[in-house]
Design brief:
Elements: H1 2-20, E1 25-34, E2 45-48, E3 55-58, E4 64-71, E5 73-80, E6 87-94, E7 100-106
Parallel strand pairs: 1-7
Antiparallel strand pairs: 1-4, 2-3, 2-5, 5-6
Length: about 130
């Protein structure tokens, strides 16, 4: 009887230390759309900041992304897409009980050019086709 109690006691201690050593993670998913047109953006890179190794994903054809094994707590996300302003989403709360679902909207980044110069060089004496026999 004493051996059974000792075995149960040791087993509970081992199980307790094993359970405490695990870090809780969860999934963060969502959709990235354009702020003005509300269309989904394809190929946006979404990354969880300050994680090693880096946790990240790109959006699919429907603008959705899925980040697996995100640590539970408050995290910062960064969304990057060519032609759009870089977006940092601070303090996203990740719970252990359910997935975090986000609706991310990105704003287009317009660049103004000061001057454009177009030059053309044509030689009227040359044939347009190099293979022409004249």
């Amino acid at each position: 009887m004493m051996q059974k109690l000792l075995f149960i006691f040791l087993l509970s201690i081992l199980f307790g230390t094993w359970a405490m050593g695990q870090t809780l993670t969860q999934t963060v998913r969502g959709v990235v759309t354009d702020t003005d047109s509300k269309t989904p953006l394809i190929g946006v890179t979404v990354v969880v900041l300050n994680t090693a190794p880096t946790i990240g994903a790109t959006t699919g054809s429907d603008g959705t992304f899925r980040l697996e094994n995100v640590p539970v707590g408050r995290v910062d996300l960064k969304a990057v897409y060519l032609g759009y302003e870089e977006l940092i989403i601070s303090n996203v709360v990740v719970h252990s009980g359910k997935e975090t679902v986000l609706d991310v909207r990105m704003l287009e980044n317009f660049s103004t050019l000061t001057q454009v110069e177009i030059t053309a060089n044509t030689n009227k004496g040359e044939a347009l086709n190099d293979m022409a026999l004249l």
